[in-house]
Amino acid sequence: MKRSKFILALISCVPITALAKYKETLTRQDKGFKTNAGEGRTHGHIQLKGVNANVLDLKVSGKDTDGDLAIFEQTGLSPKRGTPLHVHHNQDETFNVIEGEYHFIVGKEKFKLTAGDTIFLPRKVPHAWTQVSQKAKMNVIVQPAGKLEEFFVTMAAFKGEPSKEQVAKIFSDHEMEIVGPPLLVD
Q1: Is the peptide bond prior to 144 cis by the omega test (within 30 degrees of 0)?
Q2: Which region among 7-21, 72-86, 148-162 has the lowest average model confidence (pLDDT)?
Q3: How far is 108 from 134, CA to CA, in rounded Å?
Q4: Is residue 42 part of a domain?
Q5: In a domain, 10, yes or no
Q6: Of 51, 75, 100, 164, which is most buried by a Cβ count within 10 Å?
Q7: pLDDT of res. 24
Q8: What is the tally of structural domains in the chain?
Q9: Cβ distance 148 to 121 under 8 Å?
Q10: Domain range spanning residue 149?
Q11: Are strands 46-47 and 55-60 parallel, antiparallel or unpaired?
Q12: Would you say 81 and 52 are in contact if contact means Cβ atoms under 8 Å apart?
């Protein structure tokens, strides 16, 4: 039996009442909304600690999209700092630079991005980025949303800077894996 026919046969066995109950648990918005400039939809400004001290404003939550998508605006406050080389096992990421300069590594390729540039980071491919300029800002789109929103909230909750071991555990707890050091820039 072909896979598609098998899946259709399987779905046809699900009672209509189960599908109706599933629909009740969905949280997707049924109307549009606006998130103002300089504000986050929830959490206020998320001030990170650990890999950098940037501020994130959640513009669209995974809770708004049944986990399909999350969008953040990141204000870069950490020149010469960025993420360790890491992998998202289940999410693709897209970054659009609004201001400043960033360097990225995706797999074995290195990229320099400035205002207006966009980069796509496919799931399961090791990547890292580092803020190069003094001031920087970019939009981060994550699809599906996964646990990245909770990751940022967890990183912001520390009183001081977390240890490398704590950072590695937080990455792991949120469906990511650190696989190397940060991308160094001059």
Answers
A1: yes
A2: 7-21
A3: 26
A4: yes
A5: no
A6: 51
A7: 45
A8: 1
A9: no
A10: 38-175
A11: antiparallel
A12: yes
Dihedral pair phi/psi, residue 124, rounded to 5°: 70, 5
The CATH number for 133's domain is 2.60.120.10
**pLDDT of 148 higher than 70:** yes
Whether 57 and 73 have beta carbons less than 8 Å apart is answered as yes
Closest CA to 53 of 80, 78, 84: 78
State the alpha helices, DSSP H only, in the chain: 3-12, 16-25, 148-156, 164-173
Q: Are 162 and 144 in contact (CB under 8 A)?
A: no
Average pLDDT of 144-154? 85
pLDDT tens by residue, 116-139? 999 999 999 999 999 999 999 999
Residue 184: phi and psi, rounded to 5, are -85, 140
In a domain, 141, yes or no: yes
Tell me whether residue 26 is in a domain.
no
| pTM of the full structure | 0.79
- pLDDT band at residue 102 under the 50/70/90 scheme: very high
Contacts of 154 (CB under 8 A, 6+ apart): 170, 173, 174
